[in-house]
Amino acid sequence: MSLGRAIATVGSFTLLSRIVGFVRDIVLSAVLGSGAIADAFFVAFKLPNFFRRLFAEGAFSAAFVPLFARELQAEGREAAATFARQAHAALLVVLLPFSALLILGMPQVLAVIAPGLRAEPATFDLAVTFGRIAFPYLIFISLTSLYGGVLNGMDRFAEVAFTPVLLNLALIGAVLGLTPFLPNSGYAAAIGVAIAGFLQWLWLLFSCRRDGIGMTLVRPRWTERVARLVTLATPVAIGGGAQQISVVLDVVWASLMPVGTISALYYADRIAQLPLGVVGIAVGTALLPLLSRQLGAGQTDSAMANQNRAIEFGLLFSLPSLVALWLLADPIIRILFERGKFGPDDTLRAGGALAAYAVGLPAFVLVKALTPGFFAREDTRTPLYIAIAAIGANIALNLAFLFGTSLAQVGIALASSLSGWLNAVTLGLVLLRRKQWVPDQRLVSRFLRTALASIGMGAALWGGLIPLKTALAHADLVGIAALAGICAFGALAYGLLAVALGVLNLADLRVMLRRRGEAAAPPDPAEQS
Length: 529
Known about the structure:
By secondary structure, this protein is mainly alpha-helical.
């Protein structure tokens, strides 16, 4: 499968997941609101997500996918399946006792990551209970990530990309169906998280079996391949841990602020995750196995070209997303969430955080596009050192914003964005210095044109907001129609400008989306001058 087709597959299913996710968040904002119960649940939900990104989507995937792809290419499907089962056993050896330990020690863990909640004993006790209910999610989602690495390594992206939809459906069903029978809606949401993990695990377990790789249990063994997996995964785990420490510190800072700050950051982050998930995660997911195979086969020119096309694709969507979310932050939050227990003050808090998160969107997408250039070469240490530096900057910026200004939750989001830019720029500079990434003329040209088209779209949006100010001030049917209209207007303006400036080219899209062949789209001759 070509890079463009893989990105389109992952991106389209991720978009579906995000749409269902918005429905989920609308339900959560209406039922949980932005108060003490919501804060308790979101803190509890962050804990298994922290270790999911550390064990599953971080260290394990980054180390496993290149090894599995090369094993599949060099030794065949059966050898790759044997390696996957050995990795499966090794992951369980770590996950099961670790999860039991964390569930037992939940009060102590939450006292560290959300110290401000201890001032509200009732909220803290709820967070402990919700955390214990939801934490088994970690076991299932970590195994799901391993199965996803197996499927992605075989160019099967659709099943994996569909998996998050199950999480959103399970949460919606649990909150709406179980809340009347439980003390409060937080219990229902926590139960929904655990159910979602089980459903996702079951879905990909059957998907692997259908594709001829049954993930049966085997006795854990310390083989050469498992040792190599651990060697590669350890630096990523440390680096991922450093990045997740930043996420946890956001909760620490927010827990020291007024009630509702944690929830405001959550809702803002959910909106910002739409372009990051649809574009950034799609690019990283599709690029890593492709680069691993091409570099393993000595196809360095093709790998370089695909790296450039992945960056180009990421900027094509992340730059206009930055402009649009910056300008539409308050109306988006208001129309999507301002109902039930979510009020105007919550909109102002979350809207400010969303605008600050938008600043970092291109950087977060670039990180997803650049790190496969290291991981595919089995270099997991360099991103570790860069991540640690970025985390140090994040902490310093948070301290400066929170205690030197009145930015509150906006400062927390802005610190994340600025440290993301430091991460992305440093990754790019290191690859440039090593000559493992050389931007071609097409990338440079299209970046400048994309930036110009995004600025033009921003001017059009700014003008379009003036007559719609009154309509967008209320979360009713008129407001929904106005928001849909201004978003469609912005998309149309960007599309027309992109075509006029040569950013979008139908011939290039057809080449990128072709079914067979992995070489990147050829440069446009007009851009070689």
